[in-house]
Design a protein that fits this description.
- It is built from six helices and eight strands.
- The chain is an alpha+beta fold.
- The protein has two domains: 111 residues, Glycoprotein, Type 4 Pilin (2-Layer Sandwich); 72 residues, Hypothetical protein ph0010, domain 2 (Dna Ligase, domain 1), CATH 3.30.1490.
- It has a four-stranded antiparallel beta sheet, with helices on one face.
C-alpha cells in the first residue's frame, strides 16, 4: 500500500493511539526495564500491518535518542512500542533516559514508505535526484549501512553535505564512491507524539 494512502488511515484514526503507545513504552521502560508489551491482534487492522518506523527523542531541543528500522519487521503498533523504548534506553550514542528527563522530553514518530532503489552512476547524479527536506536516504555496501531521515535536512540542507555525512555514518570515507553501492530513498510521515 502506498504510504500516502496508508497514512490517511493512520491520520484519521490512529495517530493518538500510536502517540500514547510511544509514551507508555518509555514510561514502562523506566519502571520495568522493558518495552510495553502489545498484542498486535488487539489493535486496529491498519496497525497490524508490517510497517517500518523510527522514533526520535529530543530533550531541550537536542537529540536524545533515535531508533528504528528501514525494513518492516513487525506490526506497526509493536514497532512503535519497541522503537520508543529503544530510543530511550538502547541508542548507543546516549546513556539510558532518566526519570527527571521526562519533563521537556519530545517524542517524534516517523513512518517510512517502502524504500525505492536509485540507479545513479556518480555522486553528482545522486545530488540531482534528491529532494532536500523530503527524501530519506539509505546507503549500503557489504556489511556497511546507514540512513538519514528527511528531518536531517534541517541540519544538513546541502545535498553534498547530506550525502557525505551519511557516508561517514555508514562507515565509508566521505569521498568514497562505488557503482556497487546500493542507494535507496524513502519518504516519511512524521508527527510529534503528544502526551
Amino acid at each position: 500500500m502506498a504510504l500516502t494512502c496508508f497514512m490517511r488511515q493512520v491520520k484519521a484514526q490512529h495517530r493518538e493511539f500510536l502517540s500514547s503507545l510511544a509514551w507508555q513504552s518509555v514510561r514502562h521502560g523506566l519502571d520495568t526495564g522493558e518495552p510495553v508489551a502489545i498484542d498486535p491482534d488487539s489493535t486496529a487492522p491498519e496497525l497490524r500491518k508490517h510497517h517500518s518506523c523510527f522514533v526520535t527523542l529530543k530533550h531541550a531541543r537536542q537529540l536524545r535518542g533515535c531508533v528504528g528500522s528501514v525494513r518492516a519487521k513487525r506490526a506497526l503498533a509493536e514497532e512503535v512500542a519497541v522503537n520508543a523504548y529503544g530510543a530511550a534506553f538502547h541508542d548507543p550514542r546516549f546513556g539510558h533516559l532518566r526519570v527527571e528527563e521526562l519533563d521537556g522530553l519530545q517524542i517524534e514518530i516517523s513512518i517510512l514508505s517502502n524504500p525505492e532503489f536509485l540507479r545513479v552512476s556518480s555522486e553528482n547524479e545522486l545530488v540531482e535526484k534528491l529532494t532536500p527536506g523530503v527524501d530519506g536516504l539509505i546507503l549500503s555496501q557489504g556489511g556497511l549501512q546507514g540512513t538519514f531521515l528527511p528531518a536531517v535536512w534541517e541540519k544538513l540542507p546541502q545535498p553534498q553535505d547530506f550525502i557525505r555525512e551519511l557516508k561517514q555514518k555508514a562507515g565509508f570515507a566521505s569521498d568514497y564512491w562505488s557503482e556497487s553501492m546500493v542507494i535507496e530513498r524513502y519518504t516519511t510521515e512524521s508527527w510529534i507524539a503528544h502526551r
